[in-house]
Amino acid sequence: MIKSELIDRLAEANPHLYHRDVERVVNTILDGVTDALARGDRVELRGFGAFSVRQRPARTGRNPRTGESVSVKEKHVPFFKTGKELRERVDGSRDTVKELP
Questions:
Q1: Is the pLDDT of residue 63 over 80?
Q2: Which of 44, 53, 55, 62 falls between 20 and 30 A from 80, CA-CA?
Q3: Is the dihedral angle over the CA atoms 47, 53, 58, 63 positive or is it negative?
Q4: What is the per-residue pLDDT across 8-46, written as a single tens digit (0 to 9) for each?
């Protein structure tokens, strides 16, 4: 699902809200998560998961085309850890999927 599909589904589920208002809410939430991660904060959505920032140390990498060694700088990357409820729902949905003959 992409962001526009999420907005469309939320707008359909809440016909009393204008589509533009639903879009504004989704953008505000995502901007808040992005801003918090940019500050190095952790964002936890109970039952869904937690977003955090992890530090990757500097290392020596390889150029895949030439095989030449390349120095890769230290960086900070976003990380998502699923919540227990989300993991259980996804795992449980696998049990209900029927295999084709």
A1: yes
A2: 62
A3: positive
A4: 999 999 999 999 999 999 999 999 999 999 999 999 999
How far is it, in rounded angstroms, from Cα 38 to Cα 25? 20
Q: pTM for the whole thing?
A: 0.75
Q: Please tell me the distance from the alpha carbon of residue 80 to that of residue 44, in angstroms, as a whole number.
A: 10
Residue identified by tokens 């869904």 is 48
Q: Is the pLDDT of residue 101 over 70?
A: no
Radius of gyration of the chain (CA): 20
Q: Which residue has the tokens 């964002």?
A: 43
List CB contacts of 64: < 8 A, sequence separation 6 or more: none
How many residues in the chain? Answer: 101
pLDDT at 77 over 80: yes
Distances (CA, A) of 68 to 4, 22, 56, 64: 41, 49, 21, 8
| 1: Cβ contacts below 8 Å, ≥ 6 apart | 9
